[in-house]
């Protein structure tokens, strides 16, 4: 794989399903943060929308791209272990490799 192709695959914008679902455009745009400016391993904190409650939460891009926690801390705490397994299975569709 050539270097240009590898860089292109690493750009966060190429992961449209995750971005469309979780990226908080309203809060990030106010801070001039756009997905096409980042790679999936970035340490930059950005705003995401919790799919469970709809609230915004801030997390590093690299953490969100791991897809271990795709919801805010409040929802993660209130969701039982069985529900968390279902979320991980459902959200594996959006997994970034």
Task: Record keyword descriptors for this entry.
97 residues, two-stranded antiparallel ribbon, 45% helix, 10% strand, mainly alpha
How does this structure look, described?
The chain is mostly helical and 97 residues long. It contains six helices and two strands; from the N terminus they run αααββααα. The protein has helices at 3-10, 16-22, 25-30, 61-66, 73-78, 81-91, and strands at 45-49, 56-60. The chain has a two-stranded antiparallel ribbon with strand order 1-2. The radius of gyration is 14 Å and the shape is globular. 13% of the residues are buried.
The SSE string, one letter per element, is HHHEEHHH
Give helix % range.
Answer: 40-55%
Are there runs of 5+ residues with pLDDT below 50, and where?
A: none
Radius of gyration: 14 Å
| Share of β-strand residues | 5-15%
Total strands: 2
**What about the largest sheet?**
2 strands, antiparallel
Structural class of the helices, strands and pairings? mainly alpha
Main sheet strand line-up = 1-2
Mean pLDDT: 75
Silhouette: globular
The end-to-end span amounts to 15 Å
Number of helices: 6
Question: Any chance you could write out the topology, listing elements then pairs?
Answer:
Elements: H1 3-10, H2 16-22, H3 25-30, E1 45-49, E2 56-60, H4 61-66, H5 73-78, H6 81-91
Antiparallel strand pairs: 1-2
Summed up, what is this model?
With 97 residues, the protein is mainly alpha-helical.
């Amino acid at each position: 794989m050539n270097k240009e192709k590898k860089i292109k695959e690493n750009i966060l914008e190429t992961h449209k399903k995750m971005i469309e679902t979780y990226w908080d455009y309203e809060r990030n745009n106010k801070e001039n943060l756009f997905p096409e400016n980042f790679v999936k391993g970035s340490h930059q904190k950005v705003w995401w929308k919790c799919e469970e409650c709809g609230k915004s939460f801030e997390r590093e891009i690299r953490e969100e791209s791991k897809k271990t926690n795709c919801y805010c801390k409040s929802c993660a705490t209130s969701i039982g272990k069985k529900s968390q397994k279902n979320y991980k299975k459902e959200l594996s569709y959006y997994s970034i490799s």
